Each structure stands twice: as C-alpha cells, then as structure tokens.
C-alpha cells in the first residue's frame, strides 16, 4: 500500500477502526457483549481491561484469526470478514507472546515478514534499514534475535509490524515482562509513531499507569465496553481524580481491597 499521510487519512473521514455490534462466545461462555466503538486515524487508544475482560478475543476478531459471529469490524472502511485482504493490509500487529524467530538474525526476521507481504528484496532491505535505525538496532542487524534484550525484541517486533506501512497498529500487552525503563521506552516510541507518522494505535493493557490523561481509553470489563473517550474526560465523568479510581468506580470494585495494577 502506498504511504498515506495523516492529513489524507483524516480528511478522508473514515474511522481507522470501527467495531459495530460485535459479540463473541466460546460455546456457552460469552466473552464479548455487543461491543460498538470507532477510533480515529492518527490517535493513541488504550484498551484497558483486567485479565479475562475480552481484550485478546477482540484482537483475534480484528486480526481475523476468529470469524466475526455477530456484528462487523471495519478497518478504514474495509470489512475484516468480507474484504479481509484489503482490511488486513492496513493492519500491523504485535502479539502478546513473542513471535520472532530467535535463530534468525534481526535483519532476517524483517526480511521474512517483508516477503510475506510481497515486498521485493531491494525495497525490503531499504525499509528494514530505515526501520532499524528508528528503533536504534542498526548495529544489531546481523545478530541473532535471541541475543537481544526483552525491550529490544519488542522494538524489533514493532518495527517488523510496521514494515508494510499499515496505518493501524494493534499491540496486545506489549510491555509484559519488561523492566520500568524498557516499558517507558516502548511507550514513548509508540507515542512518537502516532504524533510523527500518523499511525493509529490500539494498545491493550491491564496497567492503568500506561494511560496518559490525553490518551483515549476504552474500558472493557467482563466483555462489555464501560467507557470510551479521552482519559481526562472519563476520569471527570466518574468524579474521580485519576484513571485508577475511575476504573474502580466503573467496574464497581471501589470498595474491594484488591487493587488494580
Ligand atoms: N479459546 C477459548 N476457549 C474458551 N474460553 C475462552 C477462550 N479464550 C478466551 N476465553 C474466555 O473468554 C474470556 C475473555 O478472555 P480474553 O483472553 O479475551 O481476555 P483478555 O482480556 O485478553 O485477558 P488476558 O489479559 O488474561 O489475556 C475469558 O473468560 C476467557 O476465559
């Protein structure tokens, strides 16, 4: 896909991601209940939910790993079910579990992904070189992925997910297992992708401290969407002082002693 500028995407008026009336059940267990929301291009949205809220199920539907049972999901107006090629071409994904081939070099991991997306080897080398520079891994390109630190592996996965230049990036709990510095580094890097390159990001987490007051937030609890909007507004609407308290109020856990991480 040709690179589309932030202005072009916004003026086109289409949502980066539109989820309409989506429900999902595993047998009798209902995991998502009539979810509807839309997120704009070039924005950063945190999908906040505790374990079991339904975040991974939603990601599996957006990535078309599971067929949509009820409702529809559109990526830049392309239906994930009916026009999956067009929709998924606009999507980059960083999964919760590591998906690098540890026995391949950093460069080979990128080249493999580029080939899967039909990017020619010359163009792939060019894009990979640029991508590695941006995530400060140029000097590691010939090293095996196994030799990278956890934070470096995550940065490589993000670079790889963006190689085909998708305007929508999903990250499923991307900071799991990282130390404080590496977490902050990944969060900063992804915010820059939004501000500078106009990528739209949906970042799933159960950690309230990954939410800035200027971020958009989707609060998912037991398969239901409880709130959606600018974090500062969600906090104010709950009469709370911070996201943690707002989350506790929304989920009716305010009186519980067990805290939200
Ligand atoms: N393959 C499956 N078969 C049956 N039930 C499932 C399956 N996957 C998820 N569930 C159930 O669906 C609900 C939502 O799970 P999901 O993994 O989507 O939540 P999550 O917010 O991603 O949680 P986590 O942060 O722990 O990954 C849970 O009750 C879970 O037990």
TrEMBL record:
It holds the Pfam family ABC_tran. Keywords: ATP-binding, Nucleotide-binding. Residues 17-247 form the ABC transporter domain. One of its GO terms (molecular function) is ATP binding. Coiled coil: none annotated. Signal peptide: none annotated. It comes from the Bacteria. Belongs to the ABC transporter superfamily. PANTHER family: ABC TRANSPORTER, LINEARMYCIN RESISTANCE ATP-BINDING PROTEIN LNRL. This is ATP-binding cassette domain-containing protein. It comes from Flaviflagellibacter deserti. The lineage of its organism: Bacteria, Pseudomonadati, Pseudomonadota, Alphaproteobacteria, Hyphomicrobiales.
């Amino acid at each position: 896909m040709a690179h589309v500028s932030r202005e072009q995407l916004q003026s086109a008026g289409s949502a980066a991601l539109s989820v309409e009336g989506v429900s999902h059940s595993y047998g009798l267990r209902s995991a998502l209940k009539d979810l509807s929301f839309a997120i704009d291009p070039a924005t950063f949205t945190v999908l906040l939910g505790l374990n079991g809220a339904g975040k991974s199920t939603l990601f599996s539907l957006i990535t078309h790993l599971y067929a949509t049972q009820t409702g529809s999901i559109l990526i830049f107006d392309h239906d994930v079910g009916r026009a999956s090629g067009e929709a998924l071409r606009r999507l980059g994904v960083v999964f919760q579990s590591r998906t690098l081939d540890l026995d391949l070099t950093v460069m080979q991991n990128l080249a493999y992904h580029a080939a899967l997306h039909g990017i020619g080897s010359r163009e792939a080398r060019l894009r990979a070189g640029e991508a590695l520079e941006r995530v400060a891994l140029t000097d590691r390109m010939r090293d095996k992925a196994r030799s990278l630190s956890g934070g470096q592996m995550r940065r490589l996965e993000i670079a790889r997910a963006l190689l085909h230049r998708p305007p929508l990036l999903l990250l499923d709990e991307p900071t799991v297992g990282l130390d404080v510095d590496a977490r902050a580094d990944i969060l900063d890097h992804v915010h820059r992708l939004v501000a500078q390159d106009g990528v739209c990001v949906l970042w799933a987490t159960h950690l309230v401290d990954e939410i800035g007051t200027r971020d958009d937030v989707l609060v998912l609890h037991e398969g239901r969407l409880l709130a959606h909007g600018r974090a500062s507004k969600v906090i104010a609407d709950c009469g709370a002082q911070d996201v943690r308290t707002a989350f506790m109020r929304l989920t009716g856990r305010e009186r519980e002693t067990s805290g939200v991480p």
